[in-house]
Structures are given as structure tokens and as C-alpha cells.
Amino acid sequence: MTAGLGTVLKEWGRIGCVGFGGPPAHIALLRKLCVDDRAWLTPREFEDAIAACNLLPGPASTQLAIFCAWRVRGRAGALVGGAAFIVPGLIVILALAALFLEGSPPLAVTAAGAGAGAAVAAVAVQAGWSLMPAGWRGAPERSSRRRWSLYLLLGAVAAATTGPWLVLLLIACGVAEVIAQRVPAGLKKARALPLAVAGAGGGGVLLSVAWVATKVGALSYGGGFVIIPLMQADAVDHYRWMTAAQFLNAVALGQVTPGPVVHTVAVVGYAAAGLAGGLLAAVVAFGPSFALILLGAHRFDRLRADRRVRAFLDGAGPAAIGAILGSAVPLVLALEHPWQYFVLAGAAVLALVLRRGPVLTLLAAALAGIVIVALT
């Protein structure tokens, strides 16, 4: 069953406007639209699409949105639906970036940013923790739990300490698992994309922005938080486009705005080169997602059946989860005010004990920041 491009623009644009809460919310909204309401896909087809997108590098929920639009209206639908899903959140986050990154923002804005930024580490731990049960249950089927735990630990340590070299660790864990499972030689398909972006380039601010965005778009296995240490190392430590506090604000904005969490890279681009940098970062970061669907969606069934790809992800997957957990360390180290640690503790209770969503946790932390600054 197909639909007109106008319908795709409307429905995917609606999800892009109301999709607060990250991948779980996006998946639920896409399922309701494509399976329950319109019957464009069967439940099995939708579940297979989720599994296939999780095998690909890049933001999985964005790729799922593009894939569903492709199934409904072909390549034109994929382009229109993907853009409609991404653009609303991009507009919001660039507008907020202009407010948070201006030379002297209002005190309330600064306080809200500091409060929300303090909670980001707790949200990162929540994101990683939520991915662990499914990975742990699947480990005995293809990979031993001992190796799974080792990859998880290595990912956490790498994210906490190595910053820009994290990608090499993810690739190494994937290759190690292929060897451990004794998959026949020929890993080229599984590692072609990661190795294609493992080099570095330079020359000009916009070229540097494009390079950072390329890594973000191609290497976010498991969720947007996996590339937080990499972005922080580039944006704060290497290029010095932003302060550590501003970077925390950027991560918080990526969580509280609708659409994919990878929108965070647009704030980094904005800090580096203004609106042009923000738009360039977004286009480059989401480029791989469109390319993978437009060029390879018809081969998704073959991809899921490829033992080499699955073995590679059996190693890279838990390492990516560990990296999400380990990303909390540099985020905590970026806090500047003593009171932020109390906000972080409260956010940890909300996110990990009471299991509230990231949007509520960050908004509560932002409000706490405003109150604390006003009283001091």
C-alpha cells in the first residue's frame, strides 16, 4: 500500500514535531502510524525493519523513519519523510542554540542551562542501562556473556578516557567477535563504512565541522549518546568551539527537543560557524542515514542474514552500550559549580530510581537551576 507525498510530508512532519523522548518515542509513533492506523506495514515487517536499522551505523530511529517512508512511497517518500522527521527539531534546536550560545544570555537562561547540563550524565546512564537487558539476553545466542561483559567494560573505559579514539575500540571489538565466532573470512562488508571514516581531515572551520558531523552520523551505534565523548573531545578539547558548560547545554538541548538526539551536532556546528555551521553539521550528520536507506533498503533481508555483519555487531554493540555508560564520566567532569552535583544527584533519582523520561528529568533540572541561582 502506498500514499501520496503530501501524506508522507504531513504524517512524518507531525512525528518530527511531537517526537519528544528519543528513539523509544519515535518507534512507538512510527508503529502506530504505519502498522496500527494505516496498515502500510505488517507487524512483522516493522519489527524486521527495527532489527535491520539497529544493524546499521548511525541513528537507528532516524533510519527507521526514512525506511518506513521508503516502504510507503519509494525513494521520493524517503527523502520527503526523512526531511519532515528531521527539520522541525532542527529548527527548534538551532533557535535555542542561538539563545544559549550568545555572548551574554539572560541569567535565567544561563541557570536553566547549567541545571539541565548537570542532569545530562544521569540521562546518559539511563540510556545505556535501558539497552543492557536486551543485549544481555541475546548474548548467549551468538556471543558468550563473558565476552559481552568484556566488550561492555572496554567501551565504558574508552568513552571515559580516550575521547576521539573511541571509534577504533568499537571497530576492534566487532572484529574480535567475528574472530571469536569463527565467521569465515570476508569482513569487508561489515567494516567498510567504519573504516572509511576512521581517518582525519582538516583545513577550514567548515571542513572541520563536516568531519566531526561525518563521524557523528556514521558512528552512533546503539544511540546518540555513544558519540558524546567523541563530540566533546572535538568541540571542547581539540577545536575549542565551545566551553565544557556550553557542550553540556548542547547535549541537554538534543534531549529536550523533538526528533533525533543527533541534532546535538547542529549546536556544535552553530558554535563553530554560526547558522551555516549548524545547517552543514545537520546535513552531513544525517547524510549517511539517507544514503544507507536509499541505496540499501532493498537488501535489508540479506543484511540481517549476513553472519559477518551480525558477528561484528555482537562485539561492537555491547562496546557501544558501555560507551554510553562511560560517557557519563567526562560529562560529570565538565560540571563547574558545586550546586550542580546536587542537581545531578536529584536527576539520578528521577531517571534511575523513579524511571522518569529524559525530557522530564532535564526540565526538572533546568527549573532547579533557575531556583538555585535565584536564591544565591
UniProtKB/TrEMBL annotation:
Sorted alphabetically, which Pfam families does this protein's record hold?
Chromate_transp (PF02417)
Alphabetical keyword list: Cell membrane, Membrane, Transmembrane, Transmembrane helix
Whether Cytoplasm counts among this entry's keywords is no
Residue spans crossing the bilayer: 79-101, 107-129, 150-172, 192-213, 279-300, 312-333, 359-375
Membrane topology designation: Multi-pass membrane protein
Subcellular localization, per the record?
Cell membrane
The family annotation for this protein states: Belongs to the chromate ion transporter (CHR) (TC 2.A.51) family.
- Protein name, per record: Chromate efflux transporter
Q: Which organism is it from?
A: Paractinoplanes rhizophilus
